[in-house]
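Hey team,

Filing this mostly as a record. A colleague (T.K.) asked me to run one chain through the structure pipeline before their review meeting, and I want the input and output archived in the tracker in case anyone asks later how it was produced. No errors, nothing strange. Just documentation.

Input sequence:
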Amino acid sequence: MKDYIRLKKVELGDRRIDYRFESSLRFFDRDMFSIWYDHDFEAPSAGIAAVPFAAVMAPFMWMSGADLELEVLDEGFADSLQKAKEYYHHWFSKKWLFTGRLKTSTQENERRADGEGVLYSGGLDALTTYIRHRDAKPELFSFFGADVPLKQTKLVEACRKSFKEFADLERVKHWCMESDFWTLFDHKKLKRWTSNWWGETCHAMVLAALTAPVRYRQLGKLWIASSHAAGSIDYGWGSDYDLDNRLHWGSTRLEEDYPHASRFEKMKYFKDFPQYHRFLRVCYTWWNWSGNRINCSRCEKCYRSICELLLNGVDPEKCNFSVHEKTFEDLKKALQKSHVYYTFFNNSPAAVCFWREMQDAATQDAGLDRYGSHEFFRWLVRYKGLETMRTSFRGRLVYWARILRWNLFHRRRV
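Output structure:
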């Protein structure tokens, strides 16, 4: 019998939408997930209401070969999924089956709209995108429930507070969106299909789709910041210029902003707007969070951002980071470890590319000198480890030990 994922019922509540479904796949631990919004919204059409469900489930359809069955779906988004499938097939055809079909009737919801929105996380990419389009006063959309788990209530509230302060400063509307789809399935069961379901597979499509039920009539453009320069990577990723610009629904079309800019180029752009520096939030390692600042200042992404800021003459202390006398000593030790690819870079080729890019941009006495940063950059310019980054048996052991330790810690926290 053909495997299936079938949407049974969509229930609209007070600022929430519940999705009840059934499936023959063994991925799922329950048969329902919800989305919560922090503003009232007009009830969407049935085809638009189904868009978030289709976005969450489409990768399961492609990877497992199951049919995705919905009574009705927005015509534009149904077309988007067919176009997105081409991108996924290009990068994932060696692992995924792609034998599943989308079974649905379609509903037209297209109309003209002039409003603009930005998917906003407080990160460098998102802040740069907002700055580039701030004259249009775009609405901001932030999400909790994936990178920042809903159970981390204190961190969620700290981020909410920062986002609200930013929106109030700019006098724009801000939407907080939350969902529990992250806990819908056991991520370990997906390792056969993808090493990172959220980042590698679908985060842009899902984040964008969450906005559909509440603003499909108002937004003509929804901006998503590019996560890397177009054409600069040779692997599939959940947000890519060749993927993001294929997605549309109702009146809204997703557009990737600043697609050919590198991260270092964005930092050069961002540094000229000091009024926004205090809102920078790049960190997602919530298990490192101490409660003082919204950036832990100890993970790879925080270290990278600290270095990029200093190279551009910006004090990281003014951007929600803590820098001290051991910061660059600890960073140097982390980069020199034999298993650095698995631990510090977290098995991410993109992270290595960002550091190589920064290494090329660094000069021996560039930017501000804080706690020995100039000495560190002199060392980084000469460091050959990034050029010869490779895996090792010991590195793999350390990596999997780290994953096991994280799982045990996570169970205790939850």
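Quick notes for T.K.: Confidence is low (pLDDT under 50) at residues 410-414. DSSP finds 14 helices and eleven strands in the chain.
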